[in-house]
Sequence to fold (358 residues):
Amino acid sequence: MRVRRSLLLAGLVTLAMIVAPSATAAHVVWSGLVIAQNVPEPAPIPQELTHIEQTLKSLFGYNQFQVIGQSSKTLRTGQEDWLASSKYFALHVDAQGETDAGYTVKLKLYKELELLLETDAKLSTRSPLVIKGPQVGDGQLLLVLLVNDDERTEQSPHGHRHAANQANPVVTAWRRLSRAIQDVLP
Amino acid sequence: MKTFEEKWTAWLDDQLTGKELADFEASLPDKEAAEAEKRDATKLGTLLKQELGAQPFSNEEFFNHQLRERIARENAQDQHGRGGERSTWWTVPRLVWTGAASLALFMICAVAVMREKAPSERSEYLTQILNMRVDPVVSPNATVSVFETKGDRVTVIWTEGLQSLPSDYAAK
Fold:
């Protein structure tokens, strides 16, 4: 009788460990198509790009960054896919699972129906991804992907991303443990 | 209708009267022996009343007796109660111990897992590019490189030689 109860308890604990990480993992991935240009009177940088503004300016040498297409997707399962598109370009993002620090994604950039480039990446919550695309006129197409914490984005939409990007070692350990159990279970 | 034994007992106790007494004494086979037996029984009864009368408790003994009975009753109830609780496995102390044991087990596992693979800066916190492909038909001379910036940990895929497009393509 005691053995049966112990097994039941162990089963419930295991179930909770498997279910809990997926329940707590809610992030928003912002994906944007950005045209970088040099203009006499640059417009303010879009809010989503403020924390990497200096990096963008120093890397690409432009003074204006304009979003021509964007999408914000809340990831619950880590298996979602979505499209950020402008009039001529489309960025297809296909999330293929959660990692310790973020998500594995497959990215495809289309010019109308033509596939220009594709990449597989492990997108980290602490590390934005910028892809230099083709030259467009006198500007440059950039693809930007950012992972934000869901709750933080709702509460404070004006930046301060650093705190949210801190990796919690307990959460990381919890995910590893649940993943180890998932690997062991048939 | 009384039996002989009932009539005999009543006769010994002088409970028979009148015709019943006369009929009973007439039925006795040896009245002298019966009279002698009656006298012996009366004497024995008197002696027993004198010697074995109920001895009343003194106050102290009475309360001691009451107290012992009460303690015995309470002990019996306690044992019964404990027996009832025993049938339930999830007693409060066991729940507490089970919770503490589970927490300790989790902490041990968490520490073990955290120590098993210390997160390296590169693998855990920076975006990694697993592979990158540019359409060779559209951009045959394209090259790709990947690097990270120091300050804000931006991972950059730097392409060169992609086909340039007219400014119309910058439309929203």
Summary: Helices of chain A lie at 2-24, 53-60, 150-155, 161-165, 169-184. Residues 38 and 63 of chain A are 5 Å apart (CA to CA). Residues 151-166 of chain A have pLDDT under 50 and may be disordered. The beta strands of chain A are 27-37, 64-75, 81-85, 89-98, 102-111, 114-124, 129-136, 139-149.
